[in-house]
């Protein structure tokens, strides 16, 4: 079965007015293909509640819901996808638990990381950060536009076709430029959140 890997995904973040499920609903309403629920500092009950509600919105709009880090929550609610960092449960282990149908993405900072995540069976790889971002602690070295071009060149040379998603501090007007490097897609957070927040106050 051909998996539907989204080209644009929105990553939720803590916000004083908008819950994570609110952000998911607003993003889906704006036509965003996928939302990744990322609640690093929340308790299990809150994550489960927000993710379950966000999944209802995803089904309503025929979109994709990604759970960050937790294969347990992804399995419990029946999410479409899970995204795993380099230090989380490895993708091949997660695959044994979640099965072949779910989309599993992995994080990378270098070409070597991409090779590792590909060897583990990643359906896509989130490569970043593009620039400095305040939404993530313990940030890896900045990749930048030149870094993306070089890594895509290396992938083409090795005939590696894993979809690469740029992530980290991306502005809305930079999406097209980044896709022109040969990247498969982008993940956005803060830039889109400002837009979504403004709409709720109009």
TrEMBL record:
<dbReference type="GO" id="GO:0004789">
    <property type="term" value="F:thiamine-phosphate diphosphorylase activity"/>
</dbReference>
<keyword id="KW-0784">Thiamine biosynthesis</keyword>
<protein>
    <submittedName>
        <fullName>Thiamine phosphate synthase</fullName>
    </submittedName>
</protein>
<dbReference type="InterPro" id="IPR036206">
    <property type="entry name" value="ThiamineP_synth_sf"/>
</dbReference>
<comment type="pathway">
    <text>Cofactor biosynthesis; thiamine diphosphate biosynthesis.</text>
</comment>
<dbReference type="Pfam" id="PF02581">
    <property type="entry name" value="TMP-TENI"/>
</dbReference>
<dbReference type="GO" id="GO:0009228">
    <property type="term" value="P:thiamine biosynthetic process"/>
</dbReference>
<dbReference type="GO" id="GO:0005737">
    <property type="term" value="C:cytoplasm"/>
</dbReference>
<dbReference type="InterPro" id="IPR022998">
    <property type="entry name" value="ThiamineP_synth_TenI"/>
</dbReference>
<dbReference type="InterPro" id="IPR013785">
    <property type="entry name" value="Aldolase_TIM"/>
</dbReference>
<feature type="domain" description="Thiamine phosphate synthase/TenI">
    <location>
        <begin position="12"/>
        <end position="191"/>
    </location>
</feature>
């Amino acid at each position: 079965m051909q998996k539907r890997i989204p080209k644009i995904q929105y990553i939720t973040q803590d916000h004083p007015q908008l819950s994570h499920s609110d952000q998911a609903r607003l993003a889906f309403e704006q036509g965003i293909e996928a939302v990744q629920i990322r609640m690093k500092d929340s308790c299990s009950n809150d994550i489960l509640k927000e993710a379950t509600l966000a999944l209802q919105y995803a089904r309503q709009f025929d979109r994709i819901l990604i759970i960050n880090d937790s294969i347990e929550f992804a399995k419990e609610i029946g999410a479409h996808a899970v995204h795993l960092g380099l230090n989380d449960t490895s993708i091949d282990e997660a695959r044994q638990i979640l099965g072949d149908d779910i989309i599993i993405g992995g994080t990378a900072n270098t070409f070597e990381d991409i090779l590792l995540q590909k060897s583990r069976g990643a359906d896509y790889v989130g490569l970043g950060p593009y620039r400095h971002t305040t939404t993530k602690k313990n940030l890896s070295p900045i990749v930048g536009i030149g870094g993306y071009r070089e890594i895509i060149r290396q992938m083409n040379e090795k005939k590696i076709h894993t979809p690469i998603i740029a992530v980290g501090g991306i502005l809305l007007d930079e999406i097209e430029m980044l896709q022109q490097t040969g990247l498969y897609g982008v993940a956005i957070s803060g830039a889109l959140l400002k837009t979504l927040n403004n709409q709720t106050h109009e």
